[in-house]
Amino acid sequence: MDIDAWVWWLIGAVGLGIPLVLTAMPEFGMFAVGAVVAAVVAALGGGIVAQVLVFVAVSVALVAVVRPIAARHRGDRPQLATGMDALKGRQAVVLERVDGAGGRIKLAGEIWSARALDEDQSFDPGQQVDVVDIDGATAVVM
What we know:
Elements: H1 5-23, H2 26-43, H3 48-75, H4 84-87, E1 91-96, E2 104-107, E3 110-116, E4 128-135, E5 138-141
Parallel strand pairs: 3-5
Antiparallel strand pairs: 1-2, 1-4, 2-3, 4-5
């Protein structure tokens, strides 16, 4: 039983697809595409040298072109602020007088202990303040 070269290339493509799925490394997928194109060359009657050259050329071209595009798109994602980082920069309403020693504010629907960023500054109930930092369970406002 003699197996044609194009079948071996397809087996190689499947073999390269397995680590792609297991490791999520797209380079394996690019090599698998190169193996599929080499299988097409083999099915069309191309020699082993042509098959290997096509495999290498397609794989290298995909890595050279696709990786920089993917890296550029990965860096363009907006950063999602969660937890305490999402509260920084928000406005709050003073519930109890806030000064350098402490006080209470309503921030994002919750009551927080707060203190003024500048110890000499104070805020009266009803005033709007900006949250500049979160220090433990205390909002630092100005």
